[in-house]
Amino acid sequence: MAVLKGAFINLGAGLLGALPNIVIFQFNPERVSRTPSLAQPPMTPVGAGQVDATQQAAAPTETFSFTLRLDASDQLAESNPIAAASGILPALSALELLMVPKSAMTIDLASLAGSASAKFVSPPSKLPTVLFFWGPFRIWPVTVNSLGVTETEYNTLLTPIRAEITVSLQVLTPAQIDAQATLARGAYQYSLGVKQVMAALNLANAAALGLSGSFSLSL
Question: 0.90 exceeded by the pTM?
Answer without folding.
Answer: no
